[in-house]
Recover the amino acids of this structure.
DNA sequence: CAGCTCGAAAATGAATGCAAAATTTGATTG
DNA sequence: CAATCAAATTTTGCATTCATTTTCGAGCTG
């Protein structure tokens, strides 16, 4: 009578999970999804540009079906937009979108910091300390590129120390959406803001050492809020000059104005 | 020379946004996605059960293509799992999954509370106050069902007051994942925990009135953490008794053990 | 010559078809 | 009679096909 037991399958796709950033490199669909996501995140298509179905099919050597499945998923992730009967476009992040994304990132990092204080090991703190001083070196040498990379790694380490895969996957998803903007915003960072960011990182490390969860939570929230301000200001400047992106979500990109 | 402007489309699918819970009731795909999501969230398929492609196609009166697209999206949202060559299953939430989800919900609500303090109007606070006292009435009458509903609405109001659509959409997504568990956990609430929850809600309202962002953030985090504990305890009890859900993600559901 | 309409070409959205994998069923054997 | 194995059936994954819709351009008109 074992027919009463309907299913007995053990989940084989133990992907990175629910947040949306799964690495299912098996099953062609997952492969295509990852590749297409990278393709978009890395900026191969301009902001607001069409996502050329046919060309991508040829590029990946597949038919339209799996590609379209991936498109739906990327749309759900917020990376692209689907216009009914008019195809997919790379999502234009309005100023407000950016503000919202940085706020959510702030909330996630804030949470990660709080949880990390409950779970982080001394070794992990030592790890982050090393990265911190490495980053400080890049700060002194005005090496923006490496500063950016180490900065990212520090934040990722804190997220990892939260011991929450769901949180981590969600964080990765949101980080992907603002990646380009965040990078260029960092590049455009004013001296003053850069120094301020370094001080904030000192405070982060300090609170982490003391496992001061609530405090670290606050610091990280304000740290991201400051990043938000810097990024949005940067965006406003560049678009005033070169008209790269629209201010709101409604107006189309102005090419020559 | 307007041919130099490549695209002029205004996004028509102004869905609720990037978090994953879009309401694109237009464009058949969105329709199917919403319907299928509701179908799963409302528990029409048992935990860990197969998602019958063919039957659902008949139910919705469509072919497999749009259904499969919706399945990929739901998998990305974390509602179902896709097993290579073995179809889709309703995602089994392990104890750890639940803990993680409640923690992330706590982070999101914590953030929402902080932002709400910056943006909420007096009218909205008055609104929430009314709901609060309504809920208190249900508490006194031991009316768990209505208590639950009003409770949800209060939390949604706070999220709405954060003025962050991205956050709201993400919140809705996560709320959908734990909906069933959350509900039953509330039902099983011990008297003591229920009283504690009421006190926490008093504190929430108080901090909101004073627009004390950091404080409200802390309260909401701990409020959700307590919910988490209650829910997980409840899960442990029910599964010990009736073996409804597995403790971890690896073991299959035991129907008769 | 600007603006409009109409029609062809292309792209999108969904259905169907087909090969491979998995599940079920039935027969066989120790 | 239980366990095993192999053929048949179902299911899955992807490619292909078909019906609409959109887009682009030529021709017409005022």
């Amino acid at each position: 009578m074992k027919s009463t037991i309907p299913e007995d399958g053990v989940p084989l796709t133990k992907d990175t999970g629910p947040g949306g950033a799964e690495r299912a490199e098996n099953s062609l669909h997952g492969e295509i999804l990852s590749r297409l996501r990278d393709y978009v995140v890395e900026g191969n298509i301009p902001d607001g540009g069409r996502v050329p179905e046919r060309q991508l099919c040829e590029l990946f050597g597949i038919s339209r079906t799996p590609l379209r499945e991936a498109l739906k998923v990327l749309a759900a992730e917020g990376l692209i937009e689907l216009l009914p009967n008019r195809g997919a476009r790379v999502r234009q992040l309005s100023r407000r979108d950016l503000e919202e994304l940085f706020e959510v990132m702030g909330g996630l990092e804030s949470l990660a910091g709080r949880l990390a204080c409950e779970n982080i090991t001394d070794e992990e703190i030592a790890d982050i300390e090393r990265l911190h001083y490495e980053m400080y070196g890049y700060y002194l040498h005005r090496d923006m590129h490496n500063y950016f990379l180490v900065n990212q790694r520090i934040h990722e380490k804190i997220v990892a120390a939260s011991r929450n895969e769901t949180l981590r996957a969600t964080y990765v998803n949101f980080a992907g959406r603002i990646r380009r903007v965040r990078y260029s915003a960092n590049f455009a960072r004013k001296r003053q803001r850069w120094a301020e960011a370094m001080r904030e990182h000192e405070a982060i490390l300090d609170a982490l050492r003391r496992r001061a969860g609530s405090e670290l939570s606050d610091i990280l929230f304000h740290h991201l809020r400051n990043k938000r301000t810097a990024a949005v200001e940067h965006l406003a400047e560049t678009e005033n000059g070169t008209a790269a992106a629209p201010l709101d979500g409604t107006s189309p990109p102005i090419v020559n104005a």
Observations:
- The beta strands of chain A are 80-83, 87-90.
- Confidence is low (pLDDT under 50) at residues 1-22, 241-257 of chain A.
